[in-house]
Amino acid sequence: MPKVKTKSGAKKRFSLTASGKVKAGQAGKRHGMVKRTKRFIRDARGTTILCDADAKVVKKMFLPNG
User: Fold this and answer.
1) Chain centroid, CA 14 distance in Å
2) pTM to 2 decimals?
3) For 16-47, how does the pLDDT look when each residue is reduced to its tens digit (9 = 90+)?
4) Per the count of CB atoms within 10 A, which of 2, 6, 20, 60 is most buried?
């Protein structure tokens, strides 16, 4: 059987925490900052933990060796 490979795009977008949760960058910060509120921009800094449903898909399909 061939080896299961990690999706190379997912390597750059997601990382796993020590407890196995999936960490990802905040969405909605690429463009259009004029129409966003100051509070939204401030709250969307850094990274976030994906919800369980999304994390399950990412770990199973894209990061099988993670």
Assistant:
1) 4
2) 0.83
3) 999 999 999 999 999 999 999 999 999 999 99
4) 6
Gap between the Cα atoms of 44 and 5, Å rounded? 31
Alpha-carbon span 24 to 22, nearest angstrom:
7
Euclidean distance between CA atoms 26 and 30, whole angstroms? 10
Q: What angle do CA 43, 60, 2 make, to 5 degrees?
A: 140
Domain 8-62: top CATH class: few secondary structures
